[in-house]
Amino acid sequence: xxxxxxxxxxxxxxxxxxxxxxxxxxxxxxxxxxxxxxxxxxxxxxxxxxxxxxxxxxxxxxxxxxxxxxxxxxxxxxxxxxxxxxxxxxxxxxxxxxxxxxxxxxxxxxxxxxxxxxxxxxxxxxxxxxxxxxxxxxxxxxxxxxxxxxxxxxxxxxxxxxxxxxxxxxxxxxxxxxxxxxxxxxxxxxxxxxxxxxxxxxxxxxxxxxxxxxxxxxxxxxxxxxxxxxxxxxxxxxxxxxxxxxxxxxxxxxxxxxxxxxxxxxxxxxxxxxxxxxxxxxxxxxxxxxxxxxxxxxxxxxxxxxxxxxxxxxxxxxxxxxxxxxxxxxxxxxxxxxxxxxxxxxxxxxxxxxxxxxxxxxxxxxxxxxxxxxxxxxxxxxxxxxxxxxxxxxxxxxxxxxxxxxxxxxxxxxxxxxxxxxxxxxxxxxxxxxxxxxxxxxxxxxxxxxxxxxxxxxxxxxxxxxxxxxxxxxxxxxxxxxxxxxxxxxxxxxxxxxxxxxxxxxxxxxxxxxxxxxxxxxxxxxxxxxxxxxxxxxxxxxxxxxxxxxxxxxxxxxxxxxxxxxxxxxxxxxxxxxxxxxxxxxxxxxxxxxxxxxxxxxxxxxxxxxxxxxxxxxxxxxxxxxxxxxxxxxxxxxxxxxxxxxxxxxxxxxxxxxxxxxxxxxxxxxxxxxxxxxxxxxxxxxxxxxxxxxxxxxxxxxxxxxxxxxxxxxxxxxxxxxxxxxxxxxxxx
Length: 733
Known about the structure:
Layout: H1 2-10, E1 18-20, E2 29-31, H2 40-71, H3 83-112, H4 118-124, H5 126-145, H6 151-160, H7 165-192, E3 204-208, H8 211-217, H9 221-225, H10 228-232, E4 233-237, H11 248-264, H12 277-291, H13 298-323, H14 326-336, H15 342-351, H16 364-379, E5 390-394, H17 407-410, E6 419-423, H18 429-432, H19 436-467, H20 474-477, H21 484-528, H22 532-549, H23 555-575, E7 578-589, E8 594-597, E9 622-625, E10 628-636, E11 641-644, E12 667-673, H24 677-701, H25 709-716, H26 721-732
Antiparallel strand pairs: 1-2, 3-4, 5-6, 7-8, 7-12, 8-11, 9-10, 9-12, 10-11
Helix pairs in contact: 1-2, 2-3, 2-5, 3-7, 5-6, 5-7, 6-7, 7-11, 7-12, 8-19, 11-13, 12-13, 15-16, 15-19, 19-21, 19-23, 21-22, 21-23, 21-24, 21-25, 23-24
């Protein structure tokens, strides 16, 4: 009677002698305290046997719950569903089958020899007395940690490393069952390009392209022919499901193999470019052979992955380089994203100077693309077939490239700062090489380089306006005069020259030392390689190096450069603008070149007596008389007599041969630089302070970056100006 009840308890059915514990906080099977006929030694043996039975019942209940949950259409617990969990439960069931066979064998032995003791029964179940607590703890950890999919592989592997041979052997068999699922998923993805993952358990997962990614990568005719699947769906590594037995490099290779296979098996891929059926069958046979070995053989698995990876890489090379014309698209990225076509962007900036200094509007995208196309006509970029694939969009990306510095220094973001370049990349380059993440990095560089180019163009325009532009050579011709306005104009030119020196050297460094040099290295690799993986690695290196050398990875340098560009842009814009400081009527005229201005208040409400120039003389200032522009070459503050650069041709009376008297009563207005002396001193101080900070940051970080940075430092400080300024600054502080 006792033996039969003990056998039932071992199979999870307590009775009167081995019963369930009354204490709910301490669940388990215990020996009935009213069984007085049992000796203490027998109670101790029965307690150990009861613990085995209870652990068995916990494991068996878990298996039944999972199996029932999987059969339901709407499972109660989403974590109790999945291929890996099913394999785990299957392995546990096999383990319990061995246990149940052991109990059956013990029962037969007891029938044949009723004299066998409890010690014999316990000795037969001794392995399970050790094993079951580990398995129960493993099940509890799975529920506690909510382990799912490939995460379970690491958890089971961790528990198998207990140092106890029984536990290790049993859990390795369970792990072998789960590895079969891993092999199957890897094989389906890597060899056939099929993602067999109905429960989100694999370390590769699909994701839908975000709206801004579709906007920036566009969609070529090839992509539209291939269907929505490859236009809107991408694949990425799900690192939460990364199994510890596979390295990150191996995961990248598996991801690449699946994406490559999906590309090569597309309907629009030529038959000669697709993998041979015999080769695919051979790879599949090798994977099946590895999966049958039970335990995970890392070397064999990685060797097979490397073999498939190398084979597909060579297949893709022809498709990418010859069919998709990778060299042409790579050059187009340099021309349009990295501003290699400087003539195009010079014309574009000139055509949009007023438009893009304003905040973005609802029609901004259309407004910028029209002048962009006109600029292409002026620069012959429209003859490039790749130009038709480009278009400008207003920034819908998350502004990660935005400067993180002081808003007061930078001011508000302008329209041009929000511009991004969209490019219709030819299939399958957008899937394999120029993914949305990669194009986002290109757009960060595009926005930065355009900002530098714009600063250079605006500073050149400011020089043109005051030297050989609207006011001719008249202003510079009178600056030899020792006047306050002349000195102010010289100071303006000096500050502009300092800014232009830094901006020009920065742009030369970016375009020549960084972009041109790295582009040639990458292009030579593309020309000489015969497999896609080499090309991909060369492009990754290219993008990494130019991002680093363009200072985007150095946060402080990046912030400082953008602040300097913002200061230069604002100054150049204000330097190009002139404000009206006086309006009035000419009171008398000695000649067509020499006349007297009306006193303060002359001209009614329009006169202001020259109080708006901030104490500067009118010498060298532009003056407009009846719509005719000239420049003041001499000015007497006592009698307000003015001499202009060249004789005026205007005539109030309309005579064919104008005389001096015709100027009397003519309306005039005098203009002066919009930047005052105090503002100029403040701007110069801010610019020099930030320029010195940039030099110091670059000098400090030079040892941690590429050697090409020394070229920029040499050009910036060729005469030791910044080193001397740094020493003076340290002495004063």
